[in-house]
Amino acid sequence: MSVRFYNRAKMTVAQAPNTGTFVLGQAAEGFQDFADAGVTHGVQIRYAAEQGNNWEFGTSTVSLVDGVYSIPRNPEKTSNLDNSAIIFDSNTKVFASMDAADVVQSLEDLTNVSSAAPNNGEFLKWDGGSWTPALGGTTYTIQDGELSERNFTHALKGKLEDIEQLADVTDTANVVAALTAGTNINIASDGTISSTADSLPTQSSNAGKYLKTNGTTVSWESVSSGGSGGVFPFYKADGTQDNIVVSNGEIPFYKSDGTQDNIGII
Predict the structure, then answer these.
(1) How far, in Å, CA of 209 to CA of 203, rounded?
(2) pLDDT on residue 197
(3) Distance CA 59, CA 198 (A)
(4) Model confidence over 66-86: pLDDT tens digits?
(5) How far is it, in rounded angstroms, from Cα 56 to Cα 95?
(6) For the segment 183-218, what is each residue's pLDDT rounded down to a tens digit?
(7) Max CA-CA distance within the chain?
(8) To 5 degrees, how large is the angle CA 30–CA 34–CA 36?
(9) Which of 36, 66, 109, 255 is the most exposed place for a label (fewest CB within 10 A)?
(10) Is residue 171 part of a domain?
(11) How many domains are there within the chain?
(12) Contact predicate 47/96, CB 8 Å
């Protein structure tokens, strides 16, 4: 858990802690209490406590229950020679502090960092054992972000450039080869798409005629005029074929009462 820091948060204790947990009372004069400083339950802080010439420093996790703050003791450095917990009374003040080790004050304070300061245009690069100054020119992952326009190639930027260069939709040989023709669809080598489905004969000059197929081709046929006869094939609802016989220019049909009548062709 990372340590949190707060500004001018200093409080009195509600009772003498002796060597036990600090139960905090109210803000010390000239300071703000933990609530105003934004301290919440469960955060880890560096605490410092003082009473007269006695003091104690440590790291602890803050507890906040029913509006009352408490800090379990975990002394790291104290005014006692053995750094043991101080016996505090009710005049103790406790505040959120920080350790000198929490602050990087010079390059030497950085862990695993070369003591050589980077030159202009360089940055710190991890070589597997330490951070050392290095020039750009290396491809980085997207997490690194785009550091600069000079000596830097972003991995994502490179990928997009590859797509732009390789995705040539004018390369018809590869595009056509990648396409799968559907039913009654033909794709020519130049990318032209056409239909191979059967087409109907032209309607021009065929007004009043009907289409007739022999199973292979379709053609227009004239309807017999009045006085003549003919046989017109049709398909019934059950899928079987039957014929309508036209005699003397009339087409027979059956009415809803079952009787037959005829339609005259004029």
Answers:
(1) 9
(2) 67
(3) 86
(4) 999 999 999 999 999 999 999
(5) 11
(6) 566 777 666 777 666 777 788 877 777 778 877 788
(7) 134
(8) 75
(9) 66
(10) no
(11) 2
(12) yes
Domain-located, residue 230: yes
- Measure the CA–CA gap between 235 and 255, rounded to whole angstroms: 19
* CA 62 and chain centroid, separation: 36
Give the predicted TM-score (pTM) of the model: 0.43
- Gap between the Cα atoms of 10 and 32, Å rounded: 6
Q: For residue 181, tell me if it sits in a domain.
A: no
Yes or no: say if 136 and 152 are a contact pair by the CB < 8 Å rule: yes
Structure tokens at 86: 């101080």
CA dist., res. 81 & res. 179, Å (int) = 83
Residue with the two structure tokens 């202009």: 120
* Domain extent for 246: 209-264
Which two structure tokens, joined as six digits, stand for 30?
């000239």
Q: Report the SS3 class of residue 109.
A: helix
* Two tokens, residue 176: 């056509």
What is the C-alpha separation between 174 and 153, in angstroms, rounded? 30
